[in-house]
């Protein structure tokens, strides 16, 4: 991370102190700080015995890439490529991201009235060549990540059993699940704020104090 | 070899509902005897040691602590921004789109309580994302859904619609944060356990 930024989201969106986006983010400062704390907990972890840093960065690169969130995909791929064994893995993941491309959310509901909303879509499997290189354990993590990214309603007890069978511990599965779910959050914060940054200031700017006061009152009374 | 926990007697709910549901984990949560200071810090509220969901997430206490503190600020911070009812609407629409029956049950109840528009909330659950909830709620719902698509489809169209419905940029930022947060929460709730009848739990 560059010296100017101690916050990853500020860094990837080039948010500078005192800017409009900085003001919007600091309006929820505890959230802002803890979104960064979660990033550090996952990617500068205190305990790497269950999921190594290389495994974490590989899954994060894959998940950010599947979301097409370019600045975050670049960030994780870059960190991965700086790790030992990372450049080969980063190149392999780029091909797997292409192979895993889809549009979500899709999946199957419990049988009943919601069955009318069932939507089919790809069930991704790591390619045979990649699987030989990265092994069954990391392959199982990538396949589970794809499931969580695109078809979370298809998640199942059997899918967790597949992770256990591939050698992941209960604690490792909790960390992997948090990592994928956090990335699903992080890419949307970045995409949403990027859209807001590229939209011009709201046209009611002259009345923004009055609008803010009204919103404040509404929030306090809710 | 570790095995997952199954609930052969349970009949999982097959529709979206505002009724109270419980949640049962597929992996073994920690027990109170396992908890160190690090785990208690991760739980944030000591009462959460009674919840199998938080006790499962406590296997990674640092991530849980940050998740919980971000959650509380995004949803409960009363300082301006989106009214609580609409934060809960955003969480409900997101959960409806991803298909998280458990998350939708909790947050639709909150949306109903804070808005007193229980019937509108119920139509969102029953009729789905095309339900007409009036201009302001439609704008919040449609923005949450667009952001929940993968890849996210949220862009200028949604921002223009939100502004036309009267939302300022603080409120729009809350729409983004609440919907994004439920893309985190839905994936944990859906993948680490299952909804069960509140009576059975």
Structural class of chain A: mainly alpha
The CATH H-level homologous superfamily of chain B: AhpD-like
CATH topology term of chain A: AhpD-like
Overall pLDDT confidence of chain B: 97
How many domains of chain A? The number is 1
**Strand segment count of chain A:** 0
What is the percent of helical residues of chain B? 55-70%
N-to-C order of helices and strands of chain A: HHHHHHHHHH
Q: Please summarize the sheet with the most strands of chain A.
A: none
Shape of chain A: globular
Walk across the major sheet of chain B and give the strand order. 1-2
Low-confidence stretches of chain B: none
- Largest interface (C-beta under 8 Å): A-B, 84 and 80 residues
Structure description:
The complex is a heterodimer of chains A (222) and B (201). Chain A has 222 residues and is an all-alpha fold. Chain A contains ten helices and no strands. In chain A, α4 (53-66) runs antiparallel to α5 (70-81) and α4 packs parallel to α6 (86-99). Chain B is mainly alpha-helical. Chain B is built from nine helices and two strands, in the order βαααααααααβ. Chain B has helices at residues 37-43, 52-57, 61-76, 84-98, 101-115, 118-127, 135-148, 156-164, 169-192; strands at 21-25, 193-197. Classes of the chains: A mainly alpha (222), B mainly alpha (201). Chains A and B meet through α2, α3, α7, α8 and α9 of A and α3, α4, α8 and α9 of B. Chain A: It comes from Devosia psychrophila. Chain A: This is Avi_7170 family CMD domain-containing protein. Chain B: This is Alkylhydroperoxidase. Chain B: It comes from Devosia psychrophila.
């Amino acid at each position: 991370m560059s010296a100017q930024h101690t916050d990853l989201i500020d860094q990837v969106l080039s948010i500078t102190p005192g800017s409009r986006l900085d003001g919007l983010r600091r309006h929820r400062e505890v959230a802002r700080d803890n979104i960064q704390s979660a990033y550090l907990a996952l990617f500068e972890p205190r305990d790497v015995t269950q999921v190594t840093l290389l495994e974490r960065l590989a899954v994060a690169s894959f998940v950010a890439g599947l979301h097409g969130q370019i600045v975050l995909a670049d960030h994780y791929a870059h960190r991965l490529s700086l790790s030992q064994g990372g450049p080969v893995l980063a190149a392999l993941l780029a091909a797997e991201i292409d192979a895993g491309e889809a549009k979500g959310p899709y999946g199957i509901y419990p049988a009943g009235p919601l069955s009318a909303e069932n939507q089919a879509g790809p069930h991704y499997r790591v390619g045979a060549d990649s699987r030989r290189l990265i092994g069954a354990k990391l392959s199982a993590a990538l396949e589970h990540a794809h499931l969580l990214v695109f078809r979370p309603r298809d998640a199942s007890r059997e899918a967790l059993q597949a992770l256990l069978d591939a050698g992941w511990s209960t604690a490792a599965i909790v960390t992997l699940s948090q990592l994928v779910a956090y990335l699903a959050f992080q890419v949307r914060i970045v995409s949403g704020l990027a859209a807001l940054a590229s939209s011009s200031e709201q046209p009611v700017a002259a009345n923004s104090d009055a609008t803010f006061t009204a919103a404040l009152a509404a929030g306090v009374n809710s | 070899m570790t095995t997952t926990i199954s609930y052969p007697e349970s009949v999982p709910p097959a529709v979206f509902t505002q009724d109270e549901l419980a949640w049962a984990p597929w992996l073994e949560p920690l027990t109170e005897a396992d908890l160190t200071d690090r785990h208690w810090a991760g739980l944030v509220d000591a009462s959460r040691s009674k919840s199998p969901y938080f006790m499962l997430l406590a296997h990674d206490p640092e991530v849980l602590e940050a998740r919980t503190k971000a959650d509380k600020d995004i949803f409960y911070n009363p300082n301006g921004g989106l009214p609580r009812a609409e934060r809960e609407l955003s969480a409900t629409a997101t959960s409806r789109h991803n298909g998280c029956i458990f998350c939708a049950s909790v947050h639709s109840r909150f949306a109903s309580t804070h808005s007193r528009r229980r019937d509108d909330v119920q139509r969102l659950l029953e009729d789905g994302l095309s339900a007409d909830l009036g201009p302001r709620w439609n704008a919040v719902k449609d923005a949450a859904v667009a952001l929940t698509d993968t890849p996210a489809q949220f862009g200028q169209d949604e921002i223009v619609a939100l502004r036309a419905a009267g939302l300022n940029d603080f409120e729009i930022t809350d729409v983004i944060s609440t919907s994004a947060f439920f893309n985190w929460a839905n994936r944990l709730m859906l993948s680490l356990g299952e909804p069960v009848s509140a009576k059975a739990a």
